[in-house]
User: What shape does this take?
Amino acid sequence: MAQPAKLTLNRSASPALLTEHEAPWKKELANAVTDPGTLLKKLGLEAHQQLIDNNTSFRCLVTESFINKIEIGNINDPLLRQVLPLNEEYQIDIQQHGVTDPVGDISAMASPGLLHKYHGRALLISTGACAIHCRYCFRRHYPYQGASCSSNVIDDAVNYLTSHTEIDEVILSGGDPLVLDNKKLARLISKLEAVPQLKTLRIHSRLPVVLPNRIDDGLLTLLKTCRLQVVMVIHANHANELQHNESRKLNQLHDVGITLLNQSVLLKGINDDSDALISLSKRLLECKTLPYYLHLLDPVTGAMHFSVDENQALKLITHLEKSLPGYLVPKLVREISGKQSKSAIFSI
Ligand code: SF4
Assistant: This one.
């Protein structure tokens, strides 16, 4: 079968890319809050200082866009709980069944930063940086030192992809790949476009939700002109994360032809009730994004206090199935280290 023609765009000539050092999103990222005490103060919650861990090795990081969606004075706000480092993260009795690499990333490494777990697709950790530190993150202990989009790393990954002709989809992950600026992303994407058999570029990113202004004209142009079919999987766990600006930016991505999906993690105290999940699915549809996966928590040390048991998860999904059209019910899955795909969880 004939290969799709490779576009030969001179991306460095795009005015949108040339002016990106002035991009507002970079300023917002540079000014993200890293001190949990400051975060509590901004939200009128100084009285709760005793709940937080100020010495965590997985530091607090949260953007102004995300903070603005948190209810002032509510220590149980479902967005705040996703970013606030709590003492529970280090309580041995709660965390004892967690591990540091719950999904077997290290054993799946094919070249630095390139993970090959599943048939037909490979995942590239293009950066270790994020715009937010989600307390439930399954990669909170990942050794990101080797992750970068330097020429050597990309060339090694591209060589591996080229020699494995069964791989037709590459997944950009991290960290968060959209933390890379448009020039770096353009360089990376053009190398991937040159791998003949690749058909799909999947981007997993929290940025449309936590730093929506990252979806700028330069990025829209870059994705619109990519020769690969672009799928973006956003990560929203609660409807409150998707307000006006997030909706506007997701609509812009949709309008340039990006397929938009969402994956969530089922998190105790955040979205473990059917009303919250139903509202999320309905809000996603308004944002042109379809629910894709609802993950059981990957058992990572430091996040076990978010764990929801499988029976409870099944009850929630059953309720969703009775309340929503099928296309708004995410698939309940868990990732098991060493398995050839995500494992769907069905009722017996
Ligand atoms: S944005 Fe993704 S990689 Fe970064 S902390 Fe959150 S879940 Fe982890």
Residues 130, 132-134, 137, 139, 174-176, 206 surround iron/sulfur cluster (CB under 6 Å).
